[in-house]
Write a structure and sequence with these properties.
The structure holds three protein chains of three kinds. Chain A is of the alpha/beta class. Chain A contains 14 helices and five strands. A four-stranded mixed beta sheet of chain A has the order 2-1-3-4, sandwiched between helices. Classes of the chains: A alpha/beta, B alpha/beta, C alpha/beta.
Chain lengths: 382, 369, 587
């Protein structure tokens, strides 16, 4: 305490303390296999699991086909089913057997052409009976849609074969933007990056901060001249770097393993990821400040951030179809904004009208959580 | 033996219910999940935001558009007049699809040259895109049918008569909510059992138990009973909420349900106790449970069908007890499936339970004594 | 309190109160604490666990805020001006505040960064510190891999990277071997002498009072006294005596004397017992020594501990322990040893925690395992309890192999673990219920034994309290009660007295003696050297081996050359270890 340079508040001192804390954290990360596992191994496992395991694209759906009286006409229809990559038809002789197949889950739908199919066809309106297993509503809907596609194609073909014109008054011309193959993986994988960064940013940060409380090292830190912002930054910086590493790794896997296109700029991706990471880290710090116990912090992080990021972020389920009060809750979840940006930057491009409002929301949340952690941290115990 | 196991089980219950931390584990996650999944997890779309771009002032075009406007699936958010307006609306996610009726629509319709309605859809969320396209087709088909009848056109040579069994309105909730029964039962049972040994190790009471004249099997049984009872109670409670709260039908018989639940609980307890005997701290137990839960849920068919997975992952799902229980749940809830149709789901769970419990007992003996 | 010049005061607490809520209970951690510590002195804060030492320490460094009252450190208000206090005061918390996954050097670097030690000055300072603490050889080793003593020295070095004016040490000697304790005190002495440092140190160990210039005694949040250690013992002059009786077990002498009216304290010491009388008590040899053949009575020098016991006794009514009127444990094994350990080894990876340990314990014997943390005593203990398999060798307890003992054989053992492991969320009665069922007690016997436990250990008023809320002394009682419900023949006690106050320790040993008299075989581990005196025989362990084995007196004598005066147990222990290290260095 002789010269002013010796004051604990001096800039050089602050810088020295911060650097010391950051270096310490990095050494700890490198030595703790579980940190490395959560930061680098878990993302790979999750990406593989979700990239391959979660798919809404039904292909080769087993369907039971019952043709009461086979003829050329029925063959031309069922031929369409056989050729479709969506279906895997099983021909069964009776409706009873088909029903049994469906109850035993060997078939997801039944297509039945009655004995009067050819006869009614001539008179204008032959019914094709379709029974769908509605248990899995979404798959059921997809199967119905695919069947309709087969049916429409068949109508056109029939008309052409008989030399007549198509008798459908209005046709739909579909143009699917951004994801013309309609691959669910292309929209799931970008969203997954938000989930993974939540895991690193919030779960890992909350746990390591709580660990310092549990092991008594926080008490030692607090008793030194280190100020609160330095202690918080000493945690933020290393886990920011770790989270950014996890993100880059996930992006690389998305681009090269899952072949998701990146239509927007990398810069937009990086900018939004930075904001999201800050919000996630702020939330992690906040959790650990409140709980100070690894066990509770871990649970709070999983229940409070991971689960909502999963369900309420629009990553898998459409937000606009949720009931109003649930939709209200989604506005509180940082992942919601980041998922919107990710899906757009990957599949659509740099759409300002998406990037700017969601970016602002992320910025506000980052400031809010980091600010709250700063306000709630005291150089006190108990 | 029975008395010692009873003493252990009573102690275990008291600890679970008196420790605020484990009380939280038993109560908060299940109901949070029920709430979140029950309301938020749905593939159904309501009020899909659409924009209408109509260049044809004719009556037929207006009639077709009325079909969209009256549908509960769609919500008209914008009306546009130029091609250039399409992209901003879709890019910014203000609308999911744009219905475009060209200037020659009415003429083509009258000339019996197929009139074309162009639909531009945002494919970022592929599932939403597919489902909403399905709704579009529904509206168009209805219009076609009415138009043909009115104009006395020859009907289509064949038409689809589609019915849906077990879930006539194809509501996602009917699919998801029974799944939650399995999901929550798994989470609770796993957490209760996976943390129990670690908790005692941390508090030092585990040594105390090992030094007492218990056999390893008795300790294991004492740890299994609370998980079983709590799982049974919560599952029953959630079934009640599913039926009376969410209005999901329960068509099957309770005996089949409880047979499946019992076997499922046994296999979940086996997994939990395996984690438990390996974990030294509660944190490791928590992490272990989490690392089992995430793949177990994803690879179960809870949200997305197992049939859509690549073959390799489909084989992996065979060792997942939740996979079988979900089939049973949906079977008894929606399909009213009788016992004999579910036998193929029951025996694999019994097998998994047997293997995991044996392994847990072996690990237990190896690690503890 | 003598008036002191402010400039000479480094710590001053005025009427400090602090309460915490623990569950539904309000714990009054500090009740009107007044104390001062002087510049250039070592001030000791002595009191049992839960007496408020850590709370006070944390307040001085500004980590806790008093409910009322003021604390000043080096003239600054510790509460309002805590950053300034933290800049000039070094604080070593319990468990030393080390990052176990960083190396010695990295820990030093971190604290040098935090304390703002200029880069240029570091090398010299680190060399000084590692030289002083003997850590030089270990600079690349992870802190978590250091022994307890080494951790403690590293913790100290970290708080000294930038020489503070005042050093606060919170229980620096807990879990540390006697040798390291001695070395730590030597370092502190040097810091005070050479650098003019002021030191405020808290401790559980009464014998460490001797190292302090002034001692503050704290108990249940109240300061009972603050004076130099000499003043405390001087107050007890003329009240301490030693009683020797050849051919009578010292434990028996002590047990007898403890029941005499007017005796405040009686402890085993060497071949006899040490007695402290109440004020104005003069021993009548005829009454005191009746029944003790050839007993002699001699005045003894008073010590700090006598004063401490005197203060505590005057506050708490003594706990009456029922005479050992219980039925003796039947002898089922003849005269053979009850516990046999033969050339036992235990390996973890390529590290031998125990290498070739052999000893036997006879029926009704109290056998002690002494050693520092990491000496192998806990590993040996766990192998005997059947909690850990031996890598090689033979272990037999009550005639059966400890490793494969059937559940029925375990019914004859009682076990009490280090942390008094009870189900904290269960009430006292629920704990007793569980352990009685665990040991197969049923019906009337179960009811009788639970009543016995509540009654014997004065637990009845707390029967429905959560055991986590009990004070440490009561937890220890409950743990012992649980271990004794089924009237075991053999009792395993792992560090049974760590952290409890001296009165509770005395009471505990009286119970153990009574049990041994009934024929219960007791195996106990401890790191309190003076407790070794309560054992009939003991083994001193270091680095996985037994250094000495025998009656306390024989062990002490084996440590010194013939003709030298009998050392204290601690001196003997340190000598034995040094001799062992010396012989290893030469080979």
């Amino acid at each position: 305490m002789k010269a002013s340079a010796d004051l604990p508040m001096g800039f050089a001192r602050r810088w020295m303390r911060l650097r010391g804390l950051v270096r310490k954290e990095f050494v700890q990360i490198m030595r703790d296999p579980s940190s490395i596992a959560i930061a680098f191994l878990l993302p790979v496992i999750l990406l593989l699991l979700f990239g391959y395991g979660v798919s809404l694209d039904a292909e080769h759906v087993a369907i039971a086909v019952v043709v009461d009286q086979p003829s050329d006409l029925t063959a031309s229809f069922t031929g369409g089913l056989v050729r479709s990559r969506y279906f895997n038809p099983i021909f069964l002789p009776t409706m009873a057997e088909a029903e049994r197949a469906m109850r035993e889950r060997r078939a997801s739908a039944i297509v039945r052409l009655r004995s009067d199919f050819a006869e009614k066809r001539l008179r204008g309106s032959a019914p094709i009976q379709v029974v769908i297993n509605g248990t899995d509503a979404n798959t059921g809907r997809l199967v119905a849609g695919y069947l309709e596609g087969v049916w429409t194609a068949w109508l056109v073909e029939e008309a052409r074969a008989s030399g007549g014109s198509v008798v459908v008054p209005v046709e739909v011309e579909e143009r699917v933007w951004f994801n013309s193959r309609i691959r669910s993986r292309d929209f799931l994988v970008p969203g997954l990056i938000a989930i993974i960064m939540t895991l690193i940013g919030t779960l890992l940060t909350a746990m390591v901060m709580a660990r310092e409380w549990e092991r008594g090292t926080m008490e030692a830190l607090l008793s030194t001249p280190a100020a609160i912002p330095e202690i918080l930054l000493g945690k933020l910086i290393p886990y920011f770097v770790l989270g950014a590493g996890g993100m880059l790794q996930s992006v690389a896997m998305a681009l090269w393993l899952f072949e998701v296109p990146l239509r927007g700029s990398f810069l937009a991706l990086l900018g939004s990821a930075t904001l999201f990471l800050l919000a996630a880290l702020g939330l992690g710090l906040l959790i650990s400040i409140v709980s100070k116990n690894q066990f509770v912090a871990g649970q709070a992080a999983i229940l409070g951030t991971f689960l909502p990021a999963f369900i309420l972020s629009g990553f898998l389920f459409d937000i606009s179809s949720m009931p109003a009060f649930v939709r209200g809750i989604t506005y509180l979840i940082p992942a919601r904004y980041f998922v919107a940006i990710l899906q757009t930057v990957f599949l659509a491009g740099n759409v300002r009208s998406i990037l700017i409002p969601n970016g602002i929301a992320l910025f506000v949340m980052a400031v809010l959580f980091l600010g709250l952690s700063r306000l709630m941290s005291r150089k006190r115990l108990g | 033996m029975a008395r010692r196991v009873w003493a252990l089980a009573i102690k275990e219950f008291l600890v679970l219910l008196k420790d605020p931390r484990s009380r939280v584990v038993i109560i908060v996650p299940p109901f949070l999940q029920l709430f979140v999944f029950g309301f938020a997890a749905s593939f159904d779309l309501n009020d899909v935001p659409i924009a209408i771009y109509c260049e044809d002032p004719g009556v037929d075009a207006q009639e077709l558009l009325a079909g969209f406007r009256h549908s509960r699936h769609f919500d008209e958010r914008a009306r546009i007049t130029r091609d250039a307006e399409i992209a901003p609306l879709i890019d910014s996610k203000q609308v999911l699809l744009v219905i475009h009726i060209g200037p020659r629509f009415s003429r083509d319709l009258r000339l019996r040259a197929p009139a074309v309605v162009q639909v531009v859809v945002d494919g970022r969320d592929s599932n939403t895109a597919l489902v909403s396209l399905g709704y579009v087709h529904g509206v168009i088909n209805r219009f076609n049918g009415e138009f043909a009848a009115r104009e006395g056109l020859p009907g289509l040579p064949a038409r689809l008569e589609t019915r849906s069994w077990f879930n006539p309105n194809l509501e996602s909730r009917w699919f998801i909510v029974p799944g939650i029964v399995g999901l929550i039962t798994l989470v609770v049972t796993l957490l209760v059992t996976a943390l129990s040994v670690a908790r005692e190790r941390e508090q030092g009471t585990f040594d105390q138990t090992l030094v007492a004249p218990f056999r390893a099997g008795e300790i294991l049984l004492g740890k299994a009973v609370p998980g079983f009872v709590i799982g049974l109670c919560e599952a029953s409670l959630i079934v009640l909420i599913a039926v009376f709260g969410f209005g999901v039908p329960f068509l099957g018989d309770l005996a089949t349900f409880y047979a499946g639940l019992a076997l499922f609980l046994i296999s979940a307890i086996g997994v939990g106790l395996m984690i438990s005997s390996l974990a030294v701290t509660q944190q490791q137990g928590l992490l272990g449970a989490f690392l089992f839960l995430v793949p177990a849920v994803i690879l179960s068919g809870f949200a997305t069908p197992i049939a859509n997975m690549p073959p390799f992952l489909r084989y992996v799902t065979l060792i997942n007890p939740l996979r079988y229980f979900l089939v049973i749940l949906r079977g008894v809830f929606l399909e009213g499936a009788p016992f004999h149709l579910l036998i193929d789901q029951l025996w694999p769970m019994a097998l998994i339970g047997g293997v995991t419990l044996t392994t847990a007992a072996w690990l237990f003996r190896k690690r503890s004594v | 309190m003598t008036p002191t010049e402010p400039a000479k005061v480094v710590i001053e607490a005025r009427d400090v109160h602090k309460s915490f809520s623990a569950g539904k209970r309000l714990v009054r951690a500090l009740r009107g604490v007044e104390l001062i510590a002087r510049r250039g002195e070592v001030t000791g804060l002595i009191g049992p666990d839960g007496s408020g030492k850590t709370t006070l320490m944390r307040m001085i460094i500004g980590l806790l805020v008093p409910d009322s009252g003021t604390i000043h450190a080096l003239g600054r208000d510790a509460t309002r001006d805590s950053l300034a206090v933290q800049a000039v005061v070094g604080y070593m918390p319990q468990r030393f505040g080390l990052y176990e996954d960083l190396t010695v050097q990295e820990n030093l670097e971190l604290y040098a960064d935090l304390q703002g030690v200029p880069r240029g000055a570091r090398l010299e300072r680190f060399q000084e510190l590692t030289h002083m603490t003997g850590l030089g050889r270990f600079s690349g080793r992870l802190a978590g891999r250091l022994s307890g003593g080494m951790k403690q020295k590293l913790g100290l070095a970290c708080t000294l990277v930038r020489t503070p004016e005042l050093l606060l040490l919170d229980e620096p000697t807990v879990g540390v071997d006697p040798q390291s304790r001695r070395e730590l005190w030597a370092i502190i002495d040097r810091l005070v002498r050479d650098d003019g440092l002021s030191v405020f140190v808290s401790t559980l160990y009464l014998d460490e009072a001797e190292h302090c210039d002034r001692v503050v005694i704290i108990h249940e949040g109240e300061v009972l006294g603050q004076d130099s250690p000499g003043v405390y013992s001087e107050r007890m002059r003329g009240r301490a005596w030693t009683v020797m009786a050849a051919g009578v077990k010292p434990r028996a002498i002590q047990a007898r004397l403890a029941r005499v009216d007017g005796v405040l304290d009686a402890v085993v010491q060497g071949d006899g017992a040490r007695v402290v009388g109440e004020v104005g008590w003069t021993p009548e040899p005829s009454r005191l020594l009746a029944g003790l053949e050839g007993a002699t009575l001699a005045p003894a020098a008073p010590r700090f501990e006598d004063a401490f016991i005197d203060m505590l006794r005057s506050r708490a009514a003594g706990v009456e322990i029922a005479a050992p009127g219980e039925r003796p444990i039947p002898n089922r094994h003849g005269d053979g040893p009850v516990i046999e350990v033969e050339d036992v080894q235990r390996r973890f990876g390529d590290f031998y925690a125990v290498k070739g340990v052999t000893f036997q314990v006879a029926r009704g014997e109290v056998f002690g395992l002494l050693g520092a943390n990491g000496a192998g005593k806990s590993t040996t203990f766990r192998m005997l309890c059947g909690l850990l398999p031996a890598t090689a060798g033979r272990l037999r307890v009550a005639g059966v192999d400890a490793r494969t003992a059937a559940a029925t054989a375990r019914e004859r053992l009682g076990y009490m673990s280090q942390k008094f492991s009870l189900y904290g969320y269960l009430s006292v009665r629920q704990n007793l219920n569980f352990f009685s069922s665990a040991y197969g007690l049923a019906g009337a016997r179960r009811g009788d034994r639970i009543r016995w436990a509540l009654d014997q250990f004065q637990l009845a008023p707390y029967a429905d309290a959560q055991s986590a809320d009990l004070s440490l002394g009561y937890k220890q009682r409950l743990a012992l009660a649980c271990a004794l419900l089924h009237e075991p023949e053999i009792l395993f006690l792992d560090e049974p007295t760590s952290g409890v106050d001296p009165l509770a320790r005395r009471e505990f040993w009286r119970r153990i003696n009574a049990l041994a008299e009934q024929g219960v075989t007791v195996l106990v581990t401890t790191h309190f050297m003076e407790e070794a005196e309560y054992c009939d025989r003991l083994a001193i362990m270091a680095a996985g081996k037994i250094l000495a084995l025998g009656a306390p007196r024989d062990v002490k004598r084996s440590a010194v050359a013939a003709g030298e005066a009998e050392p204290t147990m601690e001196d003997a222990f340190i000598r034995l270890i040094e001799r062992d290290q010396g012989s290893r260095d030469t080979t």
